[in-house]
Amino acid sequence: MAAVNGEMASAGADEFWLFGYGSLIWKPPPHFDRRVPGWVTGYVRRFWQASQDHRGTPEAPGRVVTLIERSFWASLADAHDSAPEKVWGTAYRIEASHVAEVKEYLDIREINGYTIHYTPFHPADGSPSIRTLVYIGTPDNDQFTGPQEPQALAEHIYRSEGPSGLNRDYLLGLEKALNELSPESGDAHVTDLSDRLREIEAKSKKGETDIQEPVSPVSHEFRRVSSVDEQEETEKV
Ligand code: BEZ
């Protein structure tokens, strides 16, 4: 990869880079040979994408993150009315010999409203930016929910579950993964929802809430073996 005077590094013809800002941070794709912490700009991360296939079901969709263009987000009424300039995450370089296989794997992820975009990624170590592929659920997709009231959103996440597991594990996993990336990679939207969720869990343990527990709509043992879910589980590092 060539770096020219701080400009975007040009990737080799048959390699590609992928930016993860959600579960990809802690569940890498197969066959990556470099994993780089860093950020993108111009976006805001929000739990505004309904999930019917991973952390919820078609009957009871959960909530996962998407990226919203910052200028569009600024035009919305969001109770979380600030957002970091940098959206932290992880970029993965996929080995040339595995690009076709990984693209097929990623195409599965595209289901449920996400589409492919490209954005410059800035490595945390200050090395030149990299053009990365990123999956985004844009506001025109059917699963985009728009602004959510934080307490209602935390309660929704608390009671949701899908083939990839509990929605609350996705939220808390994201909070942990972000905190581990860098001292400055925390995201107040994610932390506030996590704090609310922990409070709901604590109240639930004491029998002080009537929020419904997940009803296990999908048996994890019988989930689709050809789907990304299985790969997500086997690619844990
Ligand atoms: C992510 O982790 O960045 C991600 C994964 C699948 C779809 C969209 C985003």
TrEMBL record:
Its EC number is 4.3.2.7. InterPro entries: ChaC, GGCT-like. CDD domains: GGCT_like. Keywords: Lyase. One of its GO terms (biological process) is glutathione catabolic process. One of its GO terms (cellular component) is cytoplasm. Residues 201-237 are annotated as: Disordered. GO terms for molecular function: glutathione specific gamma-glutamylcyclotransferase activity. This is glutathione-specific gamma-glutamylcyclotransferase. It comes from Neoarthrinium moseri. The lineage of its organism: Eukaryota, Fungi, Dikarya, Ascomycota, Pezizomycotina.
